[in-house]
Amino acid sequence: MATDSQLMEWEVFMQSKPGANYIHAGSVHASDKKMALQNARDTYTRRGEGTSIWVVPSDAIVASNPDDNDMFFDPANDKVYRLPTYYVMPEGAKAI
Amino acid sequence: MTEQDALYKYCLRLGDDALIHSYRLSEWCSNAPILEEDLALTNFALDMIGRAQLLLTYAGQLEGKGRTDDDLAYRRSEREYFNHLLLELPNGDFAHTIARLLFSSVWEYYFFNELQHSRDTTLAAIAAKTVKEVKYHMAHATDWAIRLGDGTEESNHRMQKAIDDLWMYTGELFETDEQTAILRDKNIAADMAMIKAKWRQEIERIIGEATLTMPKDEYMQTGSSTGIHTEYLGHILSEMQYLQRAYPEATW
User: Fold this and answer.
1) Is residue A57 domain-resident?
2) Which domains does chain B carry?
3) Which of A46, A45, A39, A48 has the alpha carbon at shortest distance from A11?
């Protein structure tokens, strides 16, 4: 793979409206925090998509390894009692 | 000259500034150093097109001859264009584009801040909208000027050359004449003397932070307030107006 000569990589998270969750929008290149924020603004909010932006250096993100998927995620698959729908609703508890 | 004529010319000049600078920044499309900068510069070009539309539409109304923003953009020759010379110069290298954006956006920031208080309510409203946009252009240009000036030997050298090369085009930004004096008396136009002082102070601060040297005030270029331009504007217009000139009234 060719060396990436386009500065550091940053991940961009955007909030679409106040109070909403920040959602991963994509990534940008930048040499510093300020430039990362401006590049994120220019790349992802040109059509009024956001009200707030987070940028995080890509190498600061710790990702799970796909090889660990068995150990990480499979145990949740066969335990129906972890889901609220497994339980019978008590009579009269309308607000649940 | 009546107040109405003076105001027409005033709006035309501001509209031409936005249109021609927009054209130059658009030339960076697909040519910027990195994709993110490509988007930033063309994004600014789109902000400026919006400003040009508002100002040229209003100029057309003031003129009262039924000319639209498109008529004014596509059917005037270079002697009828009044944009400042600085904005029509070729892009040069990236440092030159940043130096031009720095000089013009700092000017625009203080200028439109003042113009928000114009007695002309349309102009004041356009100014209020524009201030938000140019504040961002200014931040972007300032950061790059400092980054390049205080960067490597090569980037420092190029940034210094860019501000030195363009300095002689900055004097024109603060010129006043009989027309602007009419508008100034009526509290319609902005006070250029005050804007010049603020501009100078801020540019000095940025150039200092960028570890660059302030250029000397020597010969200043002039001419655009009467439609006298550099050799470059004609080439811009011949390309920009080609379709309208070759196929008048063309629609698709």
Assistant:
1) yes
2) 3-246 (1.20.1260.10)
3) A39
Per-residue pLDDT of B204-213, as tens digits, reads: 999 999 999 9
Query: Would you say residue A16 lies in a domain?
Result: yes
Residue B214's SS3 state is coil
Helix axes B121-149, B35-63, angle to 10 degrees: 150
How far apart, in Å, are the Cα atoms of B232 and each of B24, B81, B86, B226?
Answer: 11, 12, 11, 16
**Tokens standing for A52?**
């707030």
ipTM: 0.77
CB spacing of B43 vs A46 below 8 angstroms? yes
Kindly list the residues from chain A whose CB atom is less than 8 angstroms away from the CB atom of residue B39.
39, 42-43, 46
Q: Is residue A1 part of a domain?
A: no
Tell me the shortest Cα–Cα distance from B213 to chain A, in angstroms: 24
- Strand, coil or helix: what is B176? coil
Tally of domains in chain A: 1
pLDDT at A4: 64
C-alpha to C-alpha distances, A71 to A66, A68, A82, B130, B231, nearest whole angstrom: 10, 5, 17, 56, 70
Which positions in chain A touch B34 (Cβ < 8 Å)? Answer: 6-7, 29
Query: Looking at the domain assignment, is residue A35 inside a domain?
Result: yes
Render pLDDT for B142-170 as a digit per residue (tens, 0 to 9): 999 999 999 999 999 999 999 999 999 99
A69–chain B nearest CA distance, Å: 35
pTM across the whole model: 0.89
Which range marks the domain in which residue A13 is found?
Answer: 8-63
Q: Which residue has the tokens 């499979």?
A: A74
Per-window interface: A 14-73 vs B, CB < 8 A: 28-31, 34-35, 38-39, 42-43, 46
CATH, residue A30: 3.10.20.520
